[in-house]
Every structure is written in C-alpha cells, then in structure tokens.
Amino acid sequence: MIKTTDLEISFSGQKIFSDVNIVINKKEKIGFIGRNGSGKSTFLKIIIGKLEQDSGEVMMPKGYKIGYLDQHIKFTHSTVVDEVCSVLSGDREYEIWKGETILTGLGFSYDDMAKDPNDFSGGNQVKINLAKLLLEEPDMLLLDEPTNYLDIHSIKWLKNFLNDWRDELILVTHDRSFMNNVISHTLNIHRGEFKKTAGTTEKVLEKILSEEEIYNKTVENEAKKREKTEAWINRFKSKASMATRAQSKIKMLEKTEKKEKLAAVTNLDFKFNYEYYGSKENLINSSKLEFYYNENNPLIKNLSFSIKSNDKICIIGKNGKGKSTLLKLITGDLKPINGYSNIHQKTKIGYFGQMNIDRLNPKNSIYTELQSCVPNMSETEVRKVCANMMFTNNLSNKKINVLSGGEKSRVMLGKILINPANLLLLDEPTNHLDLDSCDSLLSAIKNFDGAVLMVTHDEYFLREVANKLIVFDNGKVNIFEGSYDDFLDKVGWTDEY
Predict the structure, then answer these.
(1) Rounded to an integer, what distance in angstroms lies between the CA atom of residue 34 and that of residue 41?
(2) For residue 321, how far is the Cα from the chain centroid?
(3) Do residues 441 and 267 lie in contact, with contact meaning Cβ atoms separated by under 8 Å?
(4) Does pLDDT of 61 surpass 80?
(5) How open is the CA angle 259-262-264, to the nearest 5 degrees?
(6) Cα–Cα distance between 184 and 165 in angstroms, integer?
(7) Please, where are the H alpha helices in 237-312?
(8) Phi, psi of 215 (to 5 degrees)
(9) The dihedral of CA 402, 407, 413, 419: what is its sign?
(10) What is the rounded CA–CA span in Å between residue 241 and residue 238?
C-alpha cells in the first residue's frame, strides 16, 4: 500500500500540483491518466524517490519494493540473458529460467538471448528493460508508457502478464484499449486535482464531463439570479419604503461568492494540410524491393506494392523486422539493395519518424523550430500552428530541451502541418501522446483527404484507419487487401509470440 499526504511541488515558481492525498491499496491496478504536462511523470518520480516534493509525505511499508520501467536505456552486459538476469542476487541467483521465460514471452529466441543487447532495435531494447523489471518481482509495478515501441505480439503478452499480476500496479499509457483491459481503478489528474475512481477511463471521463456540465449550468443559473437581484436593487434602492429590503439584498450579494464558469480545456485541434493531387496515377509504385543489413537475414525481399491517392495503409509485424526500414526506403533515407520506389512528381510527403524527434534542435523554441520549416511563413501563421498543437501564447517560447516526450511529438506533428501533403508517412505517431491527443490524431488521420502509410501497434488505430495492410510475418512481407479484423479472420498471425 502507498499513501500520499498533502503532496505539493512547483518548478520555476509554477505549481505543478498540491494537496495530493491518494491511497493505493493492496492488489489495486491503477490506470494513471492526464494530459501531457499535467504532472504524471513528476508524481511517479516522487513515488520512486527520484524527485523530492516541496511538501507533503509519501508513506509505504518498510521494505516495499517498486519496480519502475525506465525509458532511458543503458546496458552493461554482453548478452541479453545476462543483462536481464543481472537483477538476480542472493538466493535468487539460480532463477535464470524465470528470465528466459519472460524473454520468450516478449518474443526473444534462445539465439537472441545470446546476442549483445546493443545490437537490437529500439523496440527490442525497451523489451529487454521490461524483462529486467518483471524479473525483479517488485511489490508494485510502475509502468510509464510500457507499450511504446512494442509490437502487437509483445503488447498482447504484456496484457496477459499484467492481468495475472497479483500485486499493485500503476500504469501510464496512451493505449486506451490496453489500459482498460488491465486496470481496476483510474487515477486522473484534471485541472490540477487528483481523483481515484473504480473502473475504466471511460467511466471517469464521462463523470468529469457530467460534473463540469452541471457546475457550469449552476454558475449560469446563479449569474442570472444575481443579475435579477441587482436589477431589483437598482430599481428600488432609492425608494424609502424599499430601502431596508434593498440593503438586505445588497448584503446577501456581498456574502455570496461570485463563481466563474470553468475555462474550456484546450484540446489538440488540427487537421493535416492537404495538397490537391489531381492525378489518376498512383502516388508511389514500389517494385521488387529488397533490403538487408546482413545478406543472410534480409528484412525485405521481393516486395511490390502501390499507394493510391485515398489509401489508408497500416504496416504491422514484430519489432526489428523492417517496418521502419520500409518507410526510410520510401523517403530515401535508405537505398534498396534491389528494386525501386517511384514517387510521382505531384506526391508531397509529410513524414513523422520514430527517431525524428531526436532531430529537433534542443536550443530552439517551439516557435523557432516550426518557423524554420518555412522561413517565409508569417508570424501569424506560425503562431496558429503552435496553437493547434496546444502551444498558445508564451508556451510557444518554451525550449525544445525542456519539453516532455508528448510535447515533442506535438512539435513534430506541427512540422508536418506547416507544409501541405497528400501522403502521410507515420511511424508510431501515438507514442508519448496522451489519450486526448491520440483521439485528436485519429480524427485528423481519418479526415485527411490524402493517403496514409502508418506503422502502428495500436489495435484501436488499426481497426479505425486501415483499408489495406503490409504484414511482416514469419520472415515474409505480404500485402493484405482489407481491414485488420478481416486479416485476423482470414489469415491471422504465424508469429504469435
């Protein structure tokens, strides 16, 4: 059990949260939600002792062990299995088999376990970190975006693992379906207040919406009553016979607190800037593509496909099999060993890459970073894009190096908005975004008039977006014409775990 009492913390004079009084009881599985920048990561760092609060207290039983999934990856051992099992000590040093079992569940073969962890893709490196954490067998799991960069198979395995987990859990994730399948309670940060409620995120958000609607209606009614009272006072206060009653009403108004309506919560509100295509020809024609880093282990072999002007194509498959590589072959960041991708002269690409966030200039402000995309764009237009990405007024002056992962993702989306496109290439665009931002992104993708080619492991996005799939499965790459559910019904995965 963990209990917080009157927690408060500020950064640079700005209060992040205060008066946080939360109890997490034994065996509770908490889904922790709130907008990017609301204080979720700050709260978690206080819980694990990486950050000291300004005031208040965190209480937990003596010897209580918290396992925290750190997104910062640093390996110190030469093999995957040694890295994972490095957390074993004392009377547990012979439990290597448990580490191997977890790694198998996360998709590692015994050959993989003997390889250097630094040789794996970013997604597989995250899985190695996750395996270390699970092997520690803590009293509480604290998982901050554990599905980032995980493939569909690993996400399913992790969901099953967490469903079987019998101790405490705090989970932060942008994947609404994953969260709702795992949690027993929801902890929400809204307008600086923490509230824990039994049930899924939908129940909590519906309750907040209802409560705020009632509050604003009450404020509106009270304002009308005040207005009528003030009108009566102005009409009768000068009449001697009514003076006493008028004074009484004046005193009543003075004692009554004048409430204001709740300010509207800012949402990510945008649509991708579409450039008219005006051709019946395909945006892209790819033929017999082949690519490998190791000739004996080709990532892509003999792949041919086309992208039509209204296609919504999702790329799916295990980590490290070539999904991001395919996008890089299309953009020209990589050259194919064989084959080609012909891009029509009218095709305008907007590209969101997993690693493109690292290309943001940390010394730039948000405004400067966006303005650098089109130097001749007016300040008004750039500010509008900033506002669409929830960086209004002075927020657009924040430096890139102080932004959260979700805020950096919004900057990357803003850079796509700056330039019109008729083909979006999106590599895991939901990573680091909060639930509300994911909903806005989904709406923008579905309403985009052009084509979309997207790598995603979010099954909700897959079901909502895809009318065609590029499937990396069992060492092959195949094209499937149809929805994700059609694929599961008619073909299904060969690589299950």
Answers:
(1) 10
(2) 23
(3) no
(4) yes
(5) 155
(6) 12
(7) 243-255
(8) -60, -50
(9) negative
(10) 9
Distance CA 372, CA 342 (A): 28
**For residues 169 and 140, is the Cβ–Cβ distance under 8 A?**
yes
One-letter identity of residue 235: R
Q: Are 314 and 456 in contact (CB under 8 A)?
A: yes
For the domain covering 284-357+405-490, report its CATH number: 3.40.50.300
Pairing of strands 451-455, 423-427: parallel
Do 37 and 30 form a contact (C-beta atoms < 8 A)?
Answer: no
**pLDDT more than 90, % of the chain:** 45
Q: Is 355 exposed, middle or buried (0-12, 13-18, 19+ CB in 10 A)?
A: exposed
Domain positions in the chain: 2-203, 207-255, 284-357+405-490
Tell the CATH topology of 2-203. Rossmann fold (3.40.50)
CA distances to 10, 346, 398 from 14, rounded to whole Å, are 5, 48, 14
Please give the Cα distance from 395 to 306 (Å, whole number): 41
111 alpha-carbon distance from chain centroid = 32
pLDDT per residue over 294-339, tens digit each?
888 889 999 999 999 999 999 999 888 889 999 999 988 899 999 9
Helical axes 379-388 vs 405-418, angle rounded to 10°: 130
Give me the mean pLDDT over the 158-163 stretch. Answer: 89
Host H or E run for residue 40: helix 40-47
Residues 6+ apart with CB under 8 A from 301: 290, 476, 477
Helix ranges, 75-200 (H): 80-85, 96-105, 110-113, 122-135, 152-164, 176-180
pLDDT single digits (tens) 467-487: 999 999 988 899 999 999 999
CA atoms within 13 A on the CB side of 34: 24
The count of C-alpha atoms lying within 13 angstroms of the C-alpha of 475, restricted to the half-sphere facing its C-beta, is 3
Q: What is the 3-state secondary structure (H, E, C) of 267-280?
A: CCCCCCCECCCCCC
